[in-house]
Amino acid sequence: MQIGLQAIGIGTGARPAVLRETARAAEAAGFATLWAGEHVVLFDRAGSRYPYAEEGEFPVDAATDWLDPFTALAWAGAVTSTIGLATGICLVPEHNPLILAKQIASLDVLTSGRFSLGVGVGWMAEEFAALGVPFERRAARTREYVTIMRRLWNQEMASFAGEFVRFDNVRCFPKPLRGAVAILVGGESRAALTRSAEYGDGWYGFNLSAEEAAERLALLDGLLALRHRDRTAFRVVVAPFTKPVGPADLERYRALGVDELVVVAAPPAREEQVAAWVAELAAHWGIRG
């Protein structure tokens, strides 16, 4: 089981020098993937309930620096050569799918095929309203957008006629280096797991203890089996986030077939402190670079 790091793009991790040093140090230490999340806008007071806190309050101050994840990952990719890069997650229904497909393919090409797309349908209705995107049917919109992006990546000339998007005979280059980009569907509800089983190349479970991950994976296995799929070529990523998880729990996640455990942490404010911080994290989690 690999260990990933979600530490760039937000707060201190949005500072250019800190981001650069975090990427370099994480690669040298042996972390598998650098993850970056997404929100376009935040609010001082939002009525939507944050799903990963008991009180439902979003833990990030609205005035916090939060980089566009594709820009942040491109910056990280430019100073590294082997570490994986991924969104955890990209709010796909908030994007134009043709522009998003172009951004993703461009990032994948520039980083030698190291990019994976973690996708989610979103939870903050106010953000969708600010962007002029209907909050309703966002799951259906996400699925259609994923279909469109895969078609653009795999076909020389593509056409599409769906509920949300129509276009004829377009060419979209460059193509991802491996022909497509792996899509990891995020979310912990039955609906989210169903989406993952239906069209995902993997699943990104967030804020899950080993016990909670076991329950979700049992459901996911059943949903995959209904579609004549299994986890043979399916990537499972779990981030414990707020759960009290430590190195002693790694074997429990490994036994569940988790491919990557993601450590969510904030880097120090000064670039000269980053290398020691990453090295300490790697030692804590038993990573050998």
Q: Can you put this structure into words, describing what you see?
A:
The protein has 289 residues and is an alpha/beta fold. It has a single domain, classed as TIM Barrel (Alpha-Beta Barrel), CATH 3.20.20.30. Helices cover 37% and strands 17% of the residues. The chain has nine helices and eleven strands. The strands form two sheets. An eight-stranded parallel β-barrel has the order 1-2-3-5-8-9-10-11, surrounded by five helices. Strands 6-7 form a two-stranded antiparallel ribbon. The radius of gyration is 18 Å and the shape is globular. 42% of the residues are buried.
Give the topology, please.
Layout: E1 2-6, H1 16-29, E2 33-36, H2 69-78, E3 84-87, E4 90-91, H3 97-110, E5 115-120, H4 125-131, H5 138-154, E6 158-161, E7 166-170, E8 183-186, H6 190-199, E9 202-206, H7 210-226, E10 235-239, H8 250-255, E11 260-264, H9 274-284
Name the features.
17% strand, 9 helices, TIM Barrel, 8-stranded parallel β-barrel, alpha/beta, 289 residues
Number of strands: 11
Radius of gyration: 18 Å
Mean pLDDT: 97
Which stretches are poorly predicted, pLDDT < 50 over at least 5 residues? none
Query: What is the level-2 CATH architecture name?
Result: Alpha-Beta Barrel
How are strands sequenced across the largest beta sheet?
1-2-3-5-8-9-10-11
Query: Which strand-content bin applies to the residues?
Result: 15-25%
Number of helices: 9
CATH class (first level) name: Alpha Beta
What CATH calls the topology is TIM Barrel
Number of discrete domains? 1
Distance between the termini: 14 Å
Summarize the structure.
The protein is of the alpha/beta class and 289 residues long. The chain is built from 9 helices and 11 strands.
